[in-house]
Amino acid sequence: MFGFLLIFWIVISGKADIQHVFVGALLSLLIVLFWREDLFSRLPGTPNIKELL
Question: What is the pLDDT of residues 10-29, one digit of tens each?
Fold first, then answer.
C-alpha cells in the first residue's frame, strides 16, 4: 500500500525530484501507519473452525 500511495503522490505532483519523493514517502508512511493502527483493529475477525462448530 505504501508503494501505491507513493506512486499516486508522484503522479499527481507531476515531478519526481527529491523533495516530492521525500514528502510523498513521509505522507504515505503516515497514512499507512494510521490505517494500520486505527482501521485494522476495527476489522471483524474471521472465525476459525472451532468457533463455527
Answer: 888 887 888 888 988 999 99
Q: Rounded to the nearest 5 degrees, what angle is found at the Cα of 32, between the Cα atoms of 19 and 35?
A: 145
Is pTM, for the whole model, over 0.90?
no
Angle between helices 2-13 and 18-34 (to 10 degrees): 140
Place of cell 471483524: 44
Neighbour-count burial for 14-44, b at 16+ CB within 10 Å, e otherwise? eeeeeeeeeebeeebeeebeeeeeeeeeeee
**Spatial contact of 40 and 1, defined as CB atoms under 8 Å apart:** no
